[in-house]
Design a protein that fits this description.
This protein has helices at 43-47, 56-59, 79-86, 106-111, 113-118, 131-137, 143-161, and strands at 10-14, 22-28, 33-42, 60-65, 73-74, 77-78. It is an alpha+beta fold. This is Nitrogen fixation protein.
């Protein structure tokens, strides 16, 4: 991201095929959290190295320009970050990750550090049976729907753990 890009807003949940797309980080560990790269790498330089049959968004997180035609865009706001903010932050996620995107990040400019706490857990690609990720990715879902789903899921897990 050169100085010519300083006026552009970047999406930290971008698609790898956008011409300006860069690799933001690598998904790793059992929970697939993002480990951020110290410097951006053009996606075009990396995509050819990913084995056939592996979706690039399964192993990498990409950033690309925030565009008005995005399904998550309402006016000047990103509704995806609004849904991301509805998910509680895990205590171990309270560190703000080092990120080269922050100065031009749409999520940062819209929501500040609260978005940064949650950003490493965001997945551009998710498993079909991951109901929460599916709901978060749905542009029509509201933060209130996410909050209700999270509460119902917690109640279901508590009921399942209770002795019979």
């Amino acid at each position: 991201m050169g100085t010519d890009d300083s006026a552009l807003t970047w999406c930290p949940s971008g698609q790898p095929d956008a011409p300006e797309s860069v690799v933001l980080g690598v998904r790793s560990g059992a929970d697939g959290r993002v480990t951020y790269l110290a410097e951006p790498v053009p996606a075009a330089d990396v995509l050819g190295a990913i084995p056939e049959g592996i979706e690039p968004t399964r192993v990498l997180r990409f950033a690309s320009h925030c565009v008005s035609a995005c399904a998550h865009r309402r006016g000047n706001d990103c509704t995806l970050v609004q849904r991301v903010l509805a998910v509680p932050v895990r205590e171990e996620s309270r560190a703000v990750p080092r990120c080269h995107l922050r100065g031009s990040c749409k999520w940062w400019s819209q929501s500040g550090v609260d978005a940064c706490y949650r950003c490493p857990a965001v997945s551009t690609a998710h498993l079909a049976d991951d109901e929460l990720a599916t709901l978060m990715a749905d542009p029509t879902a509201t933060p209130e729907q996410l909050t209700a789903w999270i509460a119902a899921d917690a109640a279901d897990r508590a009921d399942a753990a209770a002795p019979a």
